[in-house]
Fold each of these.
Amino acid sequence: MAIRNSKDLGAIIRKARLSKKLSQVELARIASMRQALISDLENGTTSATLDTMLKILAALDLDISIVPRKKAAFDPTEY
């Protein structure tokens, strides 16, 4: 799945968390952060530093891959 905005990323985090049968509290504890931040990220209502995102993804056993866009057009309203 392509991630183009914070809502896309939040959906992936939520899906991965649920597939591991983790609560937001459990994920927050593993990633050493507050549960409220996990909730905000999953809902796409906040941004986070790259360091924070890497901690969350590591806690979920996920990696980031950077690939060229299939669609060349840039739409700043997507961000």
Note: Residues 3 and 9 are 6 Å apart (CA to CA).
Amino acid sequence: MIGKVLIVDDEEKLRNLLARLLKLEGYSIIEAGNLKSAQKLVESEDPDIILCDVKLPDGSGVNFIPEIKKKHPVIEIILLTAYGNIPDGIQAMKNGAFDYITKGDDNNKIIPLLSKAIEKVKLQKRVLQLESIVGKRYSFESIIGSSRQIKDAIELAKKVAPTDATVLLLGETGTGKEVFAQGIHNASPRSGRPFIALNCSAFSKELLESEMFGHKVGAFTGAVKDKKGLIEEANGGTLFLDEIGEMPVDLQSKLLRVLETGEFIKVGDTKLTSVNVRIITATNRNLLEEVKEGKFREDLYYRLNVFTIELPALRNRKEDISLLADYYTDFFSLKTNRKIKGISREAIKALEANSWKGNIRELKNVIERAVILENSDYITTDALPYDIQSVSEISGNSFNLSTVEKQHIQKVLAFAKGNKTEAARLLNIGLTTLYRKLEEYEIHR
């Protein structure tokens, strides 16, 4: 089915003619003889396109457009009229019609016009899906996992979110520290104010000071105008300082002053600037060890360590790997317009056997690559990086005859680009036998 079209016209013969024509093109058709019936069908059937007559027994198709668009902005409406009426056409387009055509004279335009309209509808639906995903991205609901470790971390974050307490997020690179920081901000009374993130390891000492605290014109070579620092930009909201362990010691004292008094001095300035900002920090380092080695101020450590949340490494919550993999498969399938239905059981086993030194970030990249490479409906081990395939083969019973046979069939299928008849010929077995083995080994191609 290409799409669903609602035809609204009080002339039954015309409706039947259009319905037959569009069904031959692959459209699903529903019909209504008046606007009241059409309104009910819109709610119950969710059409993609409405082909609507201008003059109907209970009203005007031109006035029907804004009613529909208000509740269903994605639906496209094409108006049909028995008479070419320029003012009606202009008003219809202003009201949000996709187009306006004359019955009989423009019959040859209907199919190409519907094709363009359905393309727009599909694009709009895809954009809405992506926006929905992005909208949920930084809420606690977006944090995927059923393991005890991740649930405990979420519960702690939910408890501290409504407060102004400073939060220290601990965890390896790629465990989702910024997602947690954004979640805390969005669940706090500051959610309507800015959330600004700064990676302390991305700048030299001089640049980091300027980025954080701002500067006055002439403070240094290249300072041609006053600049607000990110602390000031985040006023009223939240500043997230990632890799806080990388911050130079002499800048740590300035940050400590902000935490204790809400005041700081810009580079090259003599006056104090006051801010009301919540600070959330994160690190993959052991800050207590850094304190002992003189690399991190002890007073700042205890000021940051008011409320600590430790995020688990992915290898320590293996039960969440399949959930994350499924989520990213759906996300990247939508983003790249691929029709990947899921991940094969064998591929899931391979993912679960991996150590994931890069944690969730690494898994995300692996799935994006697999979605692009996969030629079948399901992600198979063939689409995974070779090192992950190798780990899976070593950790499994790779000497078992059935395992070897399954791997060989997968390789031949990949060589035959999914053509089962060709694969059966290369394997020197019957096509029925191949289908039986595909079902037995749960190979989805």
Note: The chain is about 50% helix and 15% strand.
Amino acid sequence: MRVAAVDMGATSVRVAVVDLDAEAPAVDVVHRWSHGPEPRSDGSVRWRWSELLENVRIGLGRALESGPLASVGVDGWAVDYGLLGEDGRLLSDPHSYRSLRTSGWRIVANEWGHAELYERTGVQLLPINTVFQLAAHDPEELGQAQRLLMLPELVAYELTGATAAERTNAGTTGLLDVATGGWADDLARAIGVDPEILVTVEPMGRLLGEHRGVPVHLVAAHDTACAVAAAPLERSAQRAFLSAGTWFLVGVERAGADTSEASREANFSNEPGALGGFRFLKNVTGFWLLEQCAAGWGDTSLVELVEQARDVPSDDVRVFDVQDQRFLAPEQMETEVRAAAGLTEAPRAVVVRSILESIAAGVASVVEELRRTQPVEELAVVGGAAASPFVRELLAEHAGVRVISGAAEATALGNAILQGVALRRFRDLTEAREWVSARSSRSSPAGALRARRA
């Protein structure tokens, strides 16, 4: 049973094929397209939507060329959206969450009150949240909209013609009532959004339609939900997760949402899980810093940069706050990092090592906050960082945990196994994770890096 996973990352779009009948999981990436937000002449920052769709279709074509498919599923980054007009077409290219148009987000939050917003939605207050993006949207265009779709569901719509609002993705917007599981219509009206354009929220699993004769199923549309679905979390109650890519998302799985004052003050999010429950987590700026520096340098890869950083003496490293808003969308990332870390004249490898150490320190601070409510002795890492022994060692060292390595392509793998649940290849998430665990995992114990230095 071969399925195709369309995995839309904020820096690359991938189409992968996974054989759910294989003895052990393997992710065959048949197409990958690097992309990023594009500044426009009107001052907006948007996604190159027609190119993105073209590459999704190219990828699915290559997936079909490799053999028959039982299903297709689409996941992607959260918070961004598209607006459809009366003719069912996109009114304009979707805005990127890295746009500075939400700089006045605190005004909107203050009008409602931070405590009330958090109690209603359970979402970490960040300028990128959909609710703040919509508050800054052109009112005239909002008035023309007949439907609002989050971006993964928008891709699924382009493939099938079916509209959907999947639970995990809706739960990131700051417009979902965490108690009822439906849209908070009063919040939508308050920011100028007609609730009628919001599609009814539903769980994953529905057959949306077909693309080139292949069934397209609604999976957990939020890429983090897919990544965590494929994470090795089934064996330990004291194991947190880290989905490590452009963003590093650190948290634990819980049966219910925690909208307490303590959680609000710590600024944790309660994001709906792929098949129930919640991911109690916090966003930490991740490889975005390194990706943007590497793009500016232009003569090396992330893998090469990380390897060069390994040999930097620890005394040369400067740890800085990766959560500083200066890193959201700077013109020159290297300049911002050097200024924040006080590394004006330092070699490139020292800058990279300082970025990695600072990200690890940011993750460690979240782990420490989680420990105030429950034991955390292990950290299951999926995504790009899972493939790097050195990054895993830094995480183990800073957070004081044993790091368990999951799949580097966990998002696509999670997308695939959730299709497997929809197709009844797996009874539930537990069985799907047991199949995923056939992939061998590596671990980095706390203190390993310190021991090697000694």
Note: The longest strand covers residues 12-19.
